Amino acid sequence: MNTATPAHALAVTLHYAEPPSFSIWEMVLLALLIVLSLVGFFARFDRVLRNIFTARKDPDFHIAPVGRRIWDFFWEVLCQAKVIKERPLPGLAHAFVFWGFLAFALVSLNHFASGFGLGFLDSDGPIGSLIDGFYFWFAAVFALLVAVSIAGLFVRRFFVRPIWLGKKVSYESGVIAFLIFALMVTYLAAFTIPSTSPMARGLWWAHALCILIFLPLIPHTKHLHLVLSPITIFLSRGEFSHIPPLEGDEDFGLVTGKDVTQLVALQAYSCVECGRCSEHCPATNTGKVLNPKEIILGVRGYLNDLGPRSEEPLLGKYNSQEAAFQCTTCGSCEYQCPVGIEHLPIIIGLRRGAVNTGAWEDDHGTKLFLALERNGNALGMSATERDKFIKKQELPIFDGSQEYCLWLGCMGAYDPQGREIIASFAKVMNYLGTSFGVLKKEKCTGDPVRRLGNDLVFQQLAEQNLEIMKQQKVTKIVTICPHCVRTIAKDWKDYGASPEVEHHSEFMARYQDKLPKTNGPEIVYHDPCYLGRYRGSYDQPREVLARSGKVIDPPRARERSFCCGAGGGLAFLGEESGERISHVRAKELAATGASIVGAACPFCNTMFRDALAATSDAPPQLLDIAQITAQSIANATTTPSNGAQNA
Amino acid sequence: MSGILVVLEHRGGAYNRMSWEALAAGQQIASASGQPLSAAIVGNDLEALSGELASKKLDKGYRVEHALLKDYTADGYVLALEQLVKKLEPEFVVLPHTYQVRDFAPRLAARFGQVLLADLIGLRKDGDNFVFVRQLFQGKLNADYRHPGSRPCFLSVQAGAFRAESLEAGSASVESFAPQLDASSIRSKPDAPFREAAQTVDLGSAPIIVSVGRGIKEQDNLPMVEELAQALGGEIAASRPICDNGWLPMERQVGSSGQTVSPKLYLAIGISGAIQHLVGMKGSKTVVAINKDENAPIFEVADYGIVGDLFDIVPALTEAVKKAKGA
Amino acid sequence: MKIIVAIKQVPVRDSNLRIDASGHWIDEDDLSYEINEPDAYALEEALQLKEKHGGEVVALLAGPERGSQTIREALAKGADRAIHIECDDLASLDTLGIANRLAAAIKDEKADLILTGLQSDDLGLGQTGVVLAELLGIPHATIIMQVEAASGSIKVKRELEDGWFQHVEMPLPALLTIQSGISKLRYATLMGIKKAKTKEVRRVSAGDLPQAAAATVTIERVYLPEKKKETQLIDGSPKEAAAKLVEKLKFEVRVI
Description:
Strand order of the largest sheet of chain A: 2-1-3-4
Radius of gyration of chain C: 21 Å
Number of helices of chain C: 6
Order of helices and strands of chain C: EEEHEHEHEHEEEEHEEEH
Number of strands of chain C: 13
Oligomer: heterotrimer
Number of helices of chain A: 29
Shape of chain A: elongated
Number of strands of chain A: 8
Number of domains of chain C: 2
Structural class of chain A: mainly alpha
Distance between the termini of chain C: 45 Å
Structural class of chain C: alpha/beta
Shape of chain C: globular
Number of domains of chain A: 4
Distance between the termini of chain A: 86 Å
CATH topology of the largest domain in chain A: Fumarate Reductase Cytochrome B subunit
Largest interface: B-C, 83 and 72 residues
Strand content of chain C: 25-35%
Radius of gyration of chain A: 30 Å
């Protein structure tokens, strides 16, 4: 009936069209639908909230420092920085949908208000009159971006189908995507018609229905993250892989639902199932049972079925013990997670529950625990072997007069390769004129048992070591092992004040100007998990290596570095199932064509030694950064005129 | 109270080789102290064993015979030997440190208010008395013991500590001694000894292990090492790369991801000694390494080492072992 | 079934041992101690028997105050209670003296089974268990690999030499010395340690026990064996080296 010309239509409809008025019946219907929708939402959301709030309180949670939380919220939620950075294209699409939602909050509120004649954004409304409908146009821009983005994400999910989104097609995602798309289309379409058109009424109701259907779907699906993840990010523990202290005599880690804390529950409900954790997980990538996403969903499933007061074990039906003990604690999952889930405290929490109660039975694990209890080192070697090495290398004994205590660690003290690293680093320190000494007695820092969840042995080791620190008046430690660094710097703190500690790469980087500069060969640098993600030291080792050669990165480097397979105590747990993680990484490193693999962790070193030989006929040379530096120094001092020497 | 009584052990109609070592120890004490030496065997129907005993240098042999001594029981042996010792009143009772002796001798000694000086590796006369040497802390220390008080003094000697070859020949009469035994005083009922049916490889309890590493280069070279293992009566094992290649089954892998072993002899052939391997075999009593790289870390833990080409040394070693065993 | 496990505390296996000033014993300062390894297997066997047949496991230890650490670990692994014979004079006693104390401390316990390790890592005499059986007047068997309990009797698998084994049946009560390595040891857990705090430890003062006779054997001197610790490199042609090595294997290692 309306056969307006395009020009005319344009003239009329450059305005967001809303029905001018609503009948009382429409208002009653709308009210009814709103109530229904809210009931649908809260019926489920209430259950979720109750599961979170009735969970055990986190023993060490502090809201301070709020500044950090506000920044995280601003950066990760409002700016969507992590989402975009780690997966740029879908990340940006997601960001537009998110920003669109923010922009639409006002529009949607206005939408329902106008249904009751209380609209405030149109030009007659109290706000709209001031800005003359500007906000509708502002939102329209976002609507366009959202529509394009959601369509793109739809195509990705249902046609491109990256494996990390799961093998099962998620129809609920399709429905949600359709609703969002419909929401935008109904909004944008309203610009093309006059308010008086019956179409305007139709579009208005369609738009309203989209929202009213969407709302109850939120708590029933992973779209719960819309509501929860901003809170999760704001409340996150903040420290990487922070392992909470055990509280009282009944706390053994995550044993049953009763041990699930509020943060754990909140995080479990926040998971958006994006699969970033799985995509980067070394275990998932090499055919192990472990998939970090499934661990989180397992906890969620447990809470849904049994609630946080249940005494059913967490490991069993909902999560497998095998999976929990396949984690190398490389931290890729936790680093990648865009919704603030902290996987490591959960996985390590499950391990603690199993180990501290004796439920975990594993021959290799038992052997490791007994070796640490008896010998104080993870390799079960006799301490006299360490003494012999110190004597043979003529390492000075720390007596309080030296600046640094050089911490050998288990690998540095007993592993033939680790010993070479120590010997090289000692040469570097001597060259730099730094005074140092090694301890007469030193126990394992407890890293493997800390990650495997054996609090009894860890406490013993931490306390014994702290006692040695006190006796010997150690104030500054330098070590070749990033695992030692992390454990001394963070984990010992549960049992007393620990000395300052730094990794040898950080130490050498501070003196890089004093190190000889040579134009050496190409060195591919492997970021150890415990130096990179755990500590953020990405540049220092590269700066040190750059003095001796041309540093190149493997495809997965820095924050995305792929684990060597040794962490989390796994170096001691025997043969892994599926493909060896070390082999995957060794191939990647060798494929760069570099003639030297630069390592900065004795555990990576020991893993790659076998892996490089097994996966390549002419493997690159494997050296620690200290060995490379020591070699440069030796070359520079023997041939002062011709420091540049290619290997 | 004087004299030395040596208790010999036999099984399946033959003397245990360690018995002669104990007798050699007995002869040593006898000649040092100028006391008479006697020896006893315990069992039933021991006529056949008399001849060999009679050919040794000793003053008297005893066949402690009773139907209830047919099978070894601690109760039976303690009761029978208690009676013999009471009759002979020796100053020293010398036994080989066998599993059987460990089972009954402490109890026998206790009947006389004595303790057994077990597992001796040496003894010497010092003044009027003897000094007995035994190991403490798994051989990390030696200790000199004295037994100053009452008699008899019960001793057991470690395998190999005295040379059976040094045994002096002679001739002695061997007489029967019939102890008083009552079936009700023998409380345990032993079944016949048995060997375990050939089962899956148990490297953990193998006394000799010949282990091979990357230095072997090819699977075709393995038989050479297998032959050496066979000559030594040992099990073959390997480091991880060998098992990774499937040259030997995974259950033969020694190291952190395989088996932990603690044999008396661990022969490492072509193994460089990565830490993963070392932690699996560091409990070995004696380590012998054969490797062409003199800087290989395996030499750090080895008691004996041969630096050289394993392809030359292994066959020569097999030959030498066979010769030594045949002799 | 009531099982008593006699355990000993010894210096940790890889301790750096030093001779004390008197030359009679080792310098005990600065040493850490642990459960004697074969005794750990005896404890494990006792715990497994209890898990199978029910009953009670009582840990028994003679030694100074530091022994309570080992007792606590035994309780943490699952022993129900413990008896600690407190004494500082272990080094001056011989096996009989120690066995006498153990026997006196448990004579009223009326245990069905007494287990202990086949020998200690420090003295390695391997007879405390057997002598204890003698003093208690009960049958014993040594170097046990397996225990099957029936009512009033047990059937055990003894290890003989050269790969031979034997089953032996005997009435209860009885004493067994357990071979090292026959099962998988469990590790102590945080939960176990916390539970152990509430378990009973009966402390017996050595002075309250009948006085043992003076030791019949005494240690006069302890010293480092004259064994070369360093690697002996054998040289010569392959044939010569092989012959030299076989000589060593025969007379020093004694495996041929």
